[in-house]
Amino acid sequence: MTLQLEPMPDDWQRALAIVAHPDDLEYGCASAVATWTDAGREVVYLMATRGEAGIDTLDPATAGPVREREELASAALVGVTSVEFLDHADGVIEYGTALRRDLAAAIRRHRPELLITLNFDDTWGGTHWNTPDHRAVGRAVMDAAGDAGNRWIFPDTVAAPWDGVRWVAVAGVNNPTHAVDVTDGLERGVRSLMEHRAYIQALTDKDPERYAHDQIEGFARQEAERFGGRPAVTFRLYPR
């Protein structure tokens, strides 16, 4: 018997999505973001890097601005108007107090009820090794959720402490607990990934449109089996 997933909570107004790279949110999560912004909720994106080391055919000084522009266009398609970039180095993000401080400061500025991040497990699905950046940022998000509410940790941030994070939702995991029906946001999720055209063209020989449809629609319809037959984006939800 297939374990059925619970619906994500909907009694919140503000979310902050924190990931390592441009494109991390577009591989599935953006369809859920489109659904949430349609309902009048506010979602802010924060990238720890500018993705400058992500395109083998472009040097970092060229790739960084390209990937930043692609992320801004991608976010706009799903109703996100605020996208911030930190300047941690792509590919070599270090977990530690410097990263935790930056993330806690962002949480204090934006005061979200829901935090979103990407799979920080050692592997994808138990087979493919996850990247150091994903592991470092995801684990720092979990820790910064608590740091942000403690006035004695990082007391020099501009914004006051924020202890209002109610959940952390982790996308892209093999053992999710909750899901969002993305029937209405699926096509915009596909288009948001397509905006990362330079990245996709360096990654695969497939047509970017076909690639985006295969990635986003394929996953969402696969997850429907666990969510009442509805196309879904899934999360592992950690209440706080």
Fraction of residues in β-strands: 15-25%
Provide the CATH superfamily: LmbE-like
What is the residue-mean pLDDT, rounded to a whole number? 96
Sheet having the most strands: 8 strands, mixed
Compute the number of strand runs: 10
Alpha carbon gyration radius = 17 Å
Question: Which structural category do the helix and sheet elements fall into?
Answer: alpha/beta
**Fraction of residues in helices?**
25-40%
Element-by-element helix/strand order: EEHEHEHEEEHEEHHHE
Q: Number of helix segments?
A: 7
GO molecular function: hydrolase activity, acting on carbon-nitrogen (but not peptide) bonds, in linear amides
Pfam families: PIG-L
InterPro entries: GlcNAc_PI_deacetylase-related (IPR003737), LmbE-like_dom_sf (IPR024078)
Protein name: LmbE family N-acetylglucosaminyl deacetylase
Can you walk through the features of this model?
- The protein has 240 residues and is of the alpha/beta class.
- It has one domain (6-239): LmbE-like (Rossmann fold, 3-Layer(aba) Sandwich).
- 38% of the residues lie in helices and 18% in strands.
- It has an 8-stranded mixed beta sheet with strand order 1-9-10-8-5-2-3-4, with helices on both faces. Strands 6-7 form a two-stranded antiparallel ribbon.
- Helix 1 (29-38) links the parallel strand 2 and strand 3 (42-47).
- Helix 2 (60-77) packs antiparallel against helix 5 (186-194), helix 3 crosses helix 4 and helix 5 packs antiparallel against helix 7 (208-223).
- The longest helix has 18 residues, at 60-77.
- The model has no long low-confidence stretch (mean pLDDT 96).
